[in-house]
Structures are given as structure tokens and as C-alpha cells.
Amino acid sequence: xxxxxxxxxxxxxxxxxxxxxxxxxxxxxxxxxxxxxxxxxxxxxxxxxxxxxxxxxxxxxxxxxxxxxxxxxxxxxxxxxxxxxxxxxxxxxxxxxxxxxxxxxxxxxxxxxxxxxxxxxxxxxxxxxxxxxxxxxxxxxxxxxxxxxxxxxxxxxxxxxxxxxxxxxxxxxxxxxxxxxxxxxxxxxxxxxxxxxxxxxxxxxxxxxxxxxxxxxxxxxxxxxxxxxxxxxxxxxxxxxxxxxxxxxxxxxxxxxxxxxxxxxxxxxxxxxxxx
Length: 276
Ligand code: AMP
Ligand code: MN
Ligand code: MN
Ligand code: MN
Known about the structure:
Structural class: alpha/beta
Bound molecules: adenosine monophosphate, manganese (II) ion
Strand order of the largest sheet: 1-2-3-4-5-6-7
Helix content: 40-55%
């Protein structure tokens, strides 16, 4: 039976496993097609592809692009992207360049909240110096005893509106979709149930995504429930999106679902892999 997991992270962004470690775990857990989708960076793809070839599983080159849409941060996964494409590479470099300055601002905000040394602390957890993100701050804060686990630390310090949260301007939705499509990839709206939107705003998001060239929606994802899978399956059918499935795995002890531990797509969805 084929097992698709089309959303995962390595040490090239905020995952805990190197690309070869991630691929080995996926293969061991029965995944037959894996996509590596690091945040705003494609540096892990070559090593992951090689490891997948050795392990005898299929590999999909991916990326997860951070987007600002109205006052929300959306994540757009690109599947089957070409990391050599100049438009994509330049776009991702631009998104990454904003992260350094944001990390400085997060550290200043935490300093205001009485927590010093977090910039150095977060950097020490980031294997990719261009990709310091909130997860690295979270690991530092847990290490210092400010919270027990990732979920707790986001709730207390790093989620929207909390003391260590700073607003940031990421790529536009149009840019992210444009870069992915320019590189031959398939734009997929990641974990759609995570965005704080009412029903009307949701529909505007889906229409906007489709009008700008979006093709897929993650119907089955690590951080959502079965009821949400059914709901997003209905949205996908109604708006004509292909359906994707991905665990959003970040590493042992940090994710709701392990690699490949995903239920089947709801009945009637057309899988995104039907166009692979
Ligand atoms: P950034 O792109 O630096 O803002 O970091 C976003 C990442 O933080 C996501 O990809 C998740 O890995 C992590 N994250 C965001 N919210 C939460 C949460 N509530 N619990 C655990 N991890 C989270
Ligand atoms: Mn992440
Ligand atoms: Mn995400
Ligand atoms: Mn992700």
C-alpha cells in the first residue's frame, strides 16, 4: 500500500533530524513517497533525495513558504519544485533575509518580558544560520525552564499576541504561488484549519488562493482532527482543489503525528499525487 507524507522538516529549517535521518525514519515507518518541505529553504533537498534513492522510497522536492495575507501568516507548500529555478531561489533568499532582523526583534521583545540571551540561545539551536525561527526560540525557552514543552511555550510566549511575538512581513500570496509555479511546482495551502478565520474569510482565502494559481489544499495534516479532515475535504471538492496529506513532522517529541501516521483522504477527494 502506498503511503504519502508530503510535509516534513529537517535541520535546514526547524526540524530536529538531518535530511538523511528524516528519510531513514520515513522509510522505516513505511512511507513510500516523502516530501521534504523546509521553511523558506531548499538546502536539504539534494541530500534527502540521495538518501531516499538509497532507501528505495520516492522523493518529492518541496518547500514551505511563509506568506503574509491580510493580517495572517499563511504557509504555502510547493511540491515538485525545482530548487535550481532562479525565481524561486531569489524569492526564498528574500524571505530568509527578513528572518535575521525578525529574530533580533523577537529577542528584544523577550528581553522586555525579562528573558535575556535569547538571540544567542535561539541561534545555538539553529543549524541553518539563515533560518532562525520561533521554534528555535521555543527550544531555548524550554531549555531555560520557561515552559515544559513546545506547545506550552508557544501558548505562553510565541503565539500571536504573546510577549515574544513580533509582527513580520513575509512574502505575498501572489509571490509565493508565482515562485512555486515558475519552478514547475504545485502550490498547496498548508494546514488550512490553523488560521484564525471565520467562515466568510476562509472562503475569501480559498478563492484568492485559487485565483492566484493555487492548486492543492492539505486536507489531512498532523495538527488537525478527523472532523477537520472531513471539513477541508468538502472545501477541496467544492473549490476544485487537489487534496494533499502531510504530517508536518518536526522531530521526535515535537510533533502530533509521526512520519506517515496519517489517515486516508476523505472519500471523493482527488489526491495531489494523481498529477505527480
Ligand atoms: P516561524 O516561521 O519562525 O514563525 O515559525 C513557525 C513554526 O513554529 C511552525 O512551522 C511550527 O513549527 C512552530 N509553531 C507555530 N505555532 C506553534 C504551536 N502552537 N505549537 C508548536 N509549534 C508551533
Ligand atoms: Mn516549523
Ligand atoms: Mn506550517
Ligand atoms: Mn511545516
